Amino acid sequence: MSEMIPCILVVDDNEQMLTLVRHVLEKARYRVITADSGEAAITVLENNPIDLVLLDIMMPGIDGYTVCRLIRDRSLLPIIMLTALESDEDKVRGLDAGADDFVTKPFSGDVLLARIRAVLRRSKCALPKASCAVIRSENIEIDFDSRRVSVNGKEVRLTPTEFHLIQELALNKGKVLTHTDLLQRVWGLEYRDEKEYLHVFIGCLRTKLGLNRRGNQAIESISGVGYRFNI
Predict the structure, then answer these.
(1) Are residues 21 and 100 in the same domain?
(2) Average pLDDT estimate for 103-108
(3) Which 8-state DSSP code applies to residue 29?
């Protein structure tokens, strides 16, 4: 990541949206590059040092999901999805592709800037040191030193945010972590009331780790309270 003012790539096929987001970001003193298609975004990324990507999902040609996966194949560059899609399934699909966060359209400039600051902060911060090097339970192995998770011996690629979430759950195995506690530990104070947001990330984590089968209580929901890791 560059040492000076962060450079943000904004990808959207809507010219008005690009203009609006550019205005908001430049007013906040970010450097901005725009791309009006997935293909153009890939070209920009190949030729410019970028610190964060704001990525629209619904675009002709290469859509946002595909661009996100292509970026994740190469790097851990922070990605925020910009989506007009409301369903949890669509949001989980974006997170599964490798996004670190999502903002639902329409959004305010203040909300967008808060998300950007939080994601940039998380990308720079080291995770808290785990008290043990590896946790093995059933078919899941979590290696805290290398920040790798495997299921049945096969590595599962998690974003830094997802790894931080599974680390918090695993290191507190058997304990109930409240929604607010998890949100503050993993995302920061700005997210402390975002219970539905946490629900989406937990759903994505369960899917990636193969824990979403009916009756599976590995990541147990404690109704109205939080979550408990049981394996």
Answers:
(1) yes
(2) 89
(3) T
